[in-house]
Model the fold of this input.
Amino acid sequence: MNSELFNEIRALEDVNSFSKHEKLVQGIINAIDQKIISRGDMLPSVNQMIRELTYARETIVKAYKELINRGIVESKNRRGYFVSTEDTEQHLKVCLLLFAFDTFQETFYQSFRNNLGENVHLDIFFHHNNPQIFETIVRDVKGKYGMYVIAPIPQPQSVHLLEELPMNKFLMVDRYLQLKDEHSYIVQEFEESSYEAFAALAPRIKEFKEFVFLFKPSSAEPDEVLKSYKKFIKDFNINGTLKNKYEPGSIEPGKVYFTIHNLELWQMLKDTKNKGMTLGKDLGILSHNDDYVKEIIFDGITTFSIDFANMGKMAAEFVLSKKPVKLVMKNELIRRNSL
Done:
C-alpha cells in the first residue's frame, strides 16, 4: 500500500504549480480517491516520508497538519496518522461543542451551519453542563479538528482543558472564561444587560404584587442574572421571591414569573391556559433567550436576549477567515404581550 501511495505523490513531481507540501497533500488525496488507501488506514510516519521522498521534516508535518485541519487525516497520540474520511472534497473539519440543543441554541447552530458553506465538515457535541462529559469530549476531540467552537462550562477546570487547544483554531462562544493566552471569543454579557432589562420593565412589574425568579443554583444558569435580580428588587423596592424550580399547577394571578428554562416556561403557559387566566393581564411572564416560538405563542413572550442567529453567523465568519475576534454581546429587551 505504501509503495502505491508514494507513487501517487511522486507522480506530481512535474507539477510545477504545486509546492512540495501541496504535492504531498494532493498525492494522499489522490490515493484516497483511487481507493489505494481507505478510512482507518495508517499513513507512513514522518520519518518514512523523509526516507522515501527526501522532503524536509517541516514540509511533511505541514502537509499532515493541513490534512488534519481538513478532517481527511487524524493524528492518534503515539500511534501515528490515519485516514479519517474518504470525503476528500471537504476543506475543513469543525468541532462545535454546546450546552444542549435548546431552541435558541438550534437557532445559533442553523445560522452557523448555513454560513459555513458546503465544503466544511461539522461535528456537534453537547456537554449538558456536566464537567465530566465536558472533559471527556474536549480531550477526545483535541488534535482531530481544524477548528474548535466551544461554549465552556464557567469553572476553573474548564480553563485548563481549553488551554490545551491551539488558540489560533479556537473560538469561545456563549460564556466567557479568561485564558492565559490570547484567544477569540463571541460571548454574552449578562449582569449589566439583565439589570437594564429589569429596570425598563419596572413600571409593569410594579403593577403586580410579586416578582418570582425561578433560579436553579449550581446549574447552567448565569449567576450574573441572579446578582442583577437581587440588586433590582432592592433598588426598586420590588417584592421579589426566589424559587429553585416551578411546581406544575402552582401558577397564580397577580404575579410576574421569570424563568430561564424553556421547559418551565411551557409548563407555566399550559397552567395559565388551564386556569383560564389572561397572560399580560392576570399575571406576567418574562423569559430569557429569544427564539421564533416566543414571538408567536400567547401573542408573544417578553424576553431579553442576544441575537443567536447573528452570533452563529459571526462564529462561521471566524472559522472561515481565522481573523481574531473579541466580542461581548449585550442582551436586549424584547417587549411582547406577556409583560
